[in-house]
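input
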Amino acid sequence: MMPSFSTMGLEHAIAGTSLYVVGPDDDVEDIKEAAMEDMRSVMSRIDRSGEGVYVQASTLGSLEALLEFLKTDEVRIPVSGIGIGPVHKKDVMKASVMLEKKKEYATILAFDVKVTQEARELADEAGVKIFMADIIYHLFDQFKAYIDNLKEEKKKEVAEEAVFPCVLKIVPNCVFNKKDPIVVGADVLEGIARVGTPICIPQREFIDIGRIASIENNHRPVDFAKKGQRVAIKIVGSNPEEQQKMFGRHFEIEDELVSKVSRRSIDILKANFRNDLSVEDWRLVVKLKTLFKIQ
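output
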């Protein structure tokens, strides 16, 4: 028969922690220190920046296993708070703090625990996501899919303001239309030319000539062209002043066409498109930042 215990305050004990019996000759403070050691190892893994997901597990051992997994180099998901046992409203309230700091971290990773109905309702109302699984890898897959989807949505939101760096050179005898819309053959000397990119001419006092409206590679429309490619581009003026710009009058064959970056567009690239640019592309961003005297 399994032994049973009856004592004051046992309902507050954390599942998975050691239970110590204090004898008449034991030092109570030493026992308390030993009891706290388990929790210290867990608490030390909470991100000190205060930003991260909220993690809930069934026992201390399960919590340690999940925290260990989340800090691995392949995963690297910061944790801002922890809990043991079923997910209650109070846990959702703690996780909701991230809504104002970093929305994507306003989530609870519930490992092998139940979620109360009240907690579900509050989470839906507050905008806190709860992911449940009894296998750690499944929990990670759910969260990763959620983050990837958020990133794609954010990219779409800021796509028009994201200016990728590029330097183009007009191909001789390939000026098909001199004035709005300007249509030329161009070599991509550096960076990535994308549809929607604002173009200016630094050698001509940085005059703006419009945005890339379309790109064709071997007579096929494409969304972008990279360094080393020769493409046909159509540039359309965004305002009356740009629409007046004309090849042969305002700029010549020797002038380079450069994407007009700004402080705002660079910040958007860093936040949302960092992995879409190569190391060489980022060097061009730095170069253009200096060219446009951006602080």
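quick obs: The radius of gyration is 29 Å.
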